Amino acid sequence: MPTALSLLWLVGTALWTGPPAPQAPQAPRSAWLRPDTVLHPPGAVPLLIKSSPAEGLTAIRVFFPLDESFTEAGMGRILARVAAERVAGGAARVGATFEAIRTPDGISYTVTGADEDFDYLSWILRQAVSEPTESDVVVRRWSSRARLSLEQARETGRGWVQADLLGRICPEVPPEVGLSAPLAGASREGVRRFWRRTHTRDRASVIVVTRAPWPLVLSALRTLDLPEEAGPGPAGTTDAVVPPARSPEVLRRWYGEARPLPGDAPAETRVLGELLRTYATDSGRDYEIFLEVRRARCSAALLAMGTAYRSGDRDMRSRISGLPEWLANEATEGNVRAAAADARRTLARGAADPSGLAAALGREGADAGDPDGLSRLYDRLGLLGQTEMAAFLGRISALTPLRSEVRP
Questions:
Q1: Nearest-CA neighbor of 358 among 125, 43, 95, 91?
Q2: Residue 406 neighbours by CB under 8 Å, 6+ apart
Q3: Which of 264, 256, 265 has the alpha carbon at shortest distance from 343?
Q4: Number of CB atoms found within 10 A of residue 349's CB
Q5: Beta 47-50 vs 205-209: how paired, if at all?
Q6: What φ, ψ does residue 76 adopt, rounded to 5°?
Q7: Rg (Cα) of the chain, in Å, rounded?
Q8: Rounded CA gap, 285 and 247, in Å?
Q9: Are 137 and 131 in contact (CB under 8 A)?
Q10: Which residues lie below 8 Å from residue 372, measured CB to CB, with a gap of 6+?
Q11: 162: Cβ–Cβ under 8 A, 6 or more apart, which residues?
Q12: CA distances from 340 to 40, 347, 359 (A)
């Protein structure tokens, strides 16, 4: 007669159907990366409001999209510098921080300080985004510095190849860092004319990360004292042909390839950047290779650049041209999951303080009118695997790369 224990074993054996099927990974909830509310008050600037992750701290960020013409290339960069100089003293009085950044898409102004100083912080921001009153001397000082840094970068083989590739990725728009000729001719009136065209109420978007009461937020930031209508368009043509800069004198050969990245795959682009950082920085005996993902106005791009003496030139070029195949081999399930996890941690760390959260919300979607872009990116990274990454890399491999080189 079977014992009770043996009967239980028989029943369990009959019911057992094998190990559980593997489950698709589930992305953790990302509600903390979504705005609490988005307001569009009549006649006022749109407001995205998010509770601050740090008690007592507020960050306010205003973004304006910029569409510089070739005769204005560099005006956004100058505006950012003169704004930072204008409000530096006022921010320091209450221990606040301020930064103005020219991005590939536009210009952002961010002030961070104590909740109790909210009214004063909003005043600082209104001063920063107001019409420039700086003299020609101030404008020329900053334009000269911007032009010098631009030309210094292009005096190197790597800087020249990089600028050449990015310029051909987006030939219809000037680079956000500017061009030498417009920077050399910058004037107070030119900067003010550019401001009047780009800094209007209907172009602004505001992100507020705070625990201050909403009525205070609305009253302080309703219009930012911005004009409702834009000024006249840019002076001169908007599609001027820019002659290529003279290539630098180099001792080694420099070669690069660029491939535009699909704009509908921000998570895959993030993982690609992590894979490059983890696996693909390479140096041979006679060459060096530099890989990066760069954002440009029209498209993100995968840049592969290298330098070599004559003996390593063939190996260097072969390594760069074979990058898509090499990446496809490296993009295993384990490597993709690890890279995606690293990308998520980077996003989370960047959004852990008020100014970082405001910047991430804007950069990953709100600047383009998509308030939930950051949370969707975070969730997508939690679900990304080898299959999705292989499809993304296949799209890149199908493209004919742009090429640039400098020889001794």
A1: 125
A2: 157, 160, 161, 247, 248, 250, 253, 254
A3: 265
A4: 10
A5: parallel
A6: -65, -40
A7: 26
A8: 26
A9: no
A10: 34, 35, 365
A11: 256, 294, 303, 305
A12: 35, 11, 20
List, in order of start, the domains of the chain with CATH numbers. Answer: 32-234+247-406 (3.30.830.10)
Tens of each residue's pLDDT in the chain, 408 residues = 444 434 333 334 333 334 444 444 554 567 889 999 999 988 889 999 999 999 999 999 999 999 999 999 999 999 999 999 999 999 999 999 999 999 999 999 999 999 999 999 999 999 999 999 988 899 999 999 999 999 998 899 999 999 999 999 999 999 999 999 999 999 999 999 999 999 999 999 999 999 999 889 999 999 999 998 887 776 554 444 455 567 788 889 999 999 999 999 999 999 999 999 876 556 667 889 999 999 888 889 999 999 999 999 999 999 999 999 999 999 999 999 999 999 999 999 999 999 999 999 999 999 999 999 999 999 999 999 999 999 999 999 999 999 999 999
pTM of the model: 0.87
Contacts of residue 293, defined as CB under 8 A and 6 or more positions apart, other chains included, come to: 261, 269, 272, 273, 276, 300, 301, 302, 303
Which tokens is 384 given?
A: 């990304």
CA nearest to 263, candidates 395, 404, 166, 397: 395
Burial 185-210 (b: 16+ CB within 10 A, else e): ebebebbbbbbbbbbbbebbbbbbbb
- Say if residues 47 and 223 touch (Cβ distance below 8 Å): no
AA letter at 110: T
Across 66-84, b (16+ Cβ under 10 Å) vs e yields bebbbbbbbbbbbbbbbbb
For residue 19, give Cα distances in angstroms to 7, 9, 15, 254, 263. Answer: 22, 17, 12, 55, 40
For residues 208 and 47, the answer to whether their CB atoms sit within 8 Å is: yes
57: β partners: 114
CA dist., res. 360 & res. 187, Å (int):
33
Q: SS3 sequence, 149-189?
A: HHHHHHCCHHHHHHHHHHHHHCCCCCCCCCCHHHHHCCCHH
